[in-house]
Design a protein that fits this description.
mainly alpha; single chain
Length: 348
């Protein structure tokens, strides 16, 4: 029997590992959402930031805020008119606990709205709206309140002495008092996150110069803050605008929203609590021409002094006022880690 000649060995089929790979498209570089060395009011500006992000963020925030405020206002008016508390022809013109409470809640919602708009248009997570450290600095906030609360109580008691001599609280004084203590702090904080945390910083991205950026953000947010109070008295409008600009300076120079929130909260809470105990708050929000006067200059001066104290105190405490690159310093003998190109690490 003859044997078949041996077959030559056949080459093995190419495996997946030996298959030639086709080069794919180059990875798209991630957009940098943080940059080191920036003050709070410029922290939304990064290399390559487009101007339209700030403009669109401003538009979306204002429109959404108006819608929220309108919905809550309509509900409050419907309740007041439906219960017979306010005649239909005076709906929305008389301050009631329902109108004040729901209106304050709608303003408190500016806080999460601002954080979400920031995240959507600038890629920074909500915690970065608090400060350049990416957190709400509670220790600093509480210390500021320990100073502001007694100062504002003394100041407002002195300026209210004529009313305190003959207090005439309204029938709803207890409701107004509870609203002032429980809801007003969130209302004031919501306004700060909206006007100083978002509007101020979103429009400040339009310039790389810190002073120009501050001027843009402070003026635009200050004007909108003034319009939001719907006053027709020029002295009141001057006060609202000045208050807004002062707080823009405070958030810049302290590196975060905390001191501004404290100033706004303490001012509003003390005012409402004191007023609820001494007067009928039905006409509290009368801001027509003639309700203000040159005496508002004193209030502006007091806020400016308190703001300056906050800034000097923050500097003395060496509070962080600029963003960092987020790199943890290396231990002795180890190489310093290098940030990934195009994105500051550990900041999101």
């Amino acid at each position: 029997m003859t044997q078949q000649p041996a077959q030559p060995p056949q080459p093995a089929p190419p495996t997946q590992a030996t298959q030639p790979t086709q080069p794919g498209p180059p990875a798209k570089p991630k957009r940098q959402v943080h940059a080191p060395g920036l003050p709070y009011h410029q922290a939304l500006r990064t290399p390559g930031t487009q101007w339209w992000r700030g403009a669109l963020a401003l538009l979306v925030f204002v429109v959404a805020g108006l819608i929220i405020n309108t919905i809550f206002g309509v509900i409050a008016i419907a309740i007041d008119v439906g219960t017979g508390r306010v005649p239909a022809e005076q709906a929305g013109m008389v301050n009631t606990p329902v109108l004040l409470g729901l209106g304050s809640i709608s303003l408190a919602l500016l806080w999460p709205l601002a954080a979400l708009v920031q995240w959507a248009f600038f890629g920074q997570r909500p915690r970065w709206i608090n400060s350049v450290e990416g957190k709400f600095r509670w220790g600093w906030f509480l210390r500021v309140n320990l100073v502001l609360i007694p100062v504002m109580i003394v100041y407002m008691v002195i300026t209210s002495l004529p009313v305190l001599q003959d207090p005439q609280p309204g029938q709803d004084w207890l409701w107004f008092l509870l609203i002032g203590l429980l809801i007003t702090p969130f209302q004031a904080a919501g306004e700060e996150y909206g006007f100083r945390g978002l509007i101020n910083r979103a429009t400040a991205t339009w310039s790389s110069n810190r002073w120009v950026a501050f001027a843009i953000g402070a003026v635009i947010s200050g004007v909108l803050f003034t319009i939001a109070h719907a006053a027709t008295d020029p002295w009141l409008n001057a006060y609202y605008f000045s208050f807004g600009v002062i707080l823009c300076a405070v958030v810049w120079l302290t590196g975060g929203i905390e001191a501004a929130v404290a100033m706004h909260v303490v001012n509003n809470v003390v005012a409402i609590v004191l007023s609820s105990l001494t007067a009928d708050l039905g006409g509290m929000f009368d801001r027509s021409a003639g309700t203000g006067g040159p005496f508002m200059l004193i209030q502006i001066g007091v806020m400016a002094i308190l703001g300056a104290v906050m800034v000097l105190w923050a500097r003395r405490r060496k509070l962080q006022a600029l963003t960092t690159d987020g790199v943890t310093p290396a231990a002795p003998g180890q190489a310093q880690p290098t940030p990934v190109e195009g994105q500051a690490p550990n900041l999101r």
